Amino acid sequence: MELLDGRAVATAIKTRLKEETETFVAAGRRRPKLVAVLAGDNAASAAYVRNKERACAQAGFDSEVIRLPQDVTEDELLATVRRLNADSRVDGFIVQLPLPRHIRAQRILMAIDPAKDVDGFHPANFGRMALGLDGFIPATPYGILLLLEHYQIQTAGLEAVVLGRSHIVGLPMSILLAQKRSTGNATVTLVHSRTADLKAHTRRADLLIAAIGRPGFVTGDMVKPGAIVIDVGINRVKAPERKSGYRLSGDVDFDSVRTRAAYLTPVPGGVGPMTVAGLLMNTMKAYKRTVQGPR
Question: Which of 76, 128, 134, 164 has the maximal Cβ count within 10 Å?
Fold first, then answer.
């Protein structure tokens, strides 16, 4: 079994982006800029945003975090989004999810300028992705594609099963793998918690993408021998013996699956760093549109 090292691949991508950034800077251009809007006091969200700040620094990007209180109003958050939409120095920005419960996330996401929607969540970008047109691919599916490409894993003709139907991962991932693209041309089945005889589907998968949000859900008996298994889950599980009080667990039971899979992503260190890499790639794309114009 070979581990798909997302951390190492993401580092290589950041190195390439930094080289590209420094070329623009040497030519008198400003640096790409990514802004994260963090509303509320969700500890996991704060950690994710810190990771994105560090990644921007490693890629040579400018970054900014706008921190808003837990009781921020929807209108106040919308005003922040509109300000960022209008700021020509900001190439892309994200509104970190989840938002406080009193805020309608869809209303906020719909207000983001699609040209700065580097998370790829706006319907305009989702629609362009579905049609195979140029746009921003959601960061996690994009990161998975980049990981598969790096390891030269050929997906054409494979039976791919995507476990989970979220608009952030599962649904776009199923669309991308089915498309005529270098990492695509697979025969795709999208399954979820209400799928009858779920194991019958996962056991036939040459490529299994687990994005259901349940720690250790995928066990060895659900995996075809020799399968490629991509674990998208990042779940906090109580661990009183640890100083933090928790440990990270994927959606895949690593110990039982590693004896059957040919390739497997670890948690942490697999898809997580690649999601940030996808976000940076989208930000560079947005930046180039600004400094070079549309192509």
Answer: 164
Q: What is the DSSP string of 230-267?
A: EE---EEEE-TTSTTSEEEE-SB-HHHHTTT-SEE--S
pLDDT of residue 251: 97
Closest CA to 167 of 104, 111, 119: 119
Tokens of 99: 């938002």
Query: What count of other Cβ atoms lies within 10 Å of the Cβ of residue 53?
Result: 16
Dihedral sign computed on CA atoms, order 220, 222, 226, 231: negative
Q: DSSP letter for 138, please.
A: P
Q: Which residues are catalytic?
A: 52, 96, 119
Helices and strands: H and E segment counts in the chain? 10, 11
Backbone angles phi, psi at 54, to 5 degrees: -60, -40
121-148: pLDDT as tens digits: 999 999 999 999 999 999 999 999 999 9
What residue ranges of the chain have pLDDT lower than 70? 293-295
Q: Which domains does the chain have, with CATH numbers?
A: 28-121 (3.40.50.10860), 139-272 (3.40.50.720)
Q: Answer for the pair 219, 191: CB distance below 8 angstroms, yes or no.
A: no
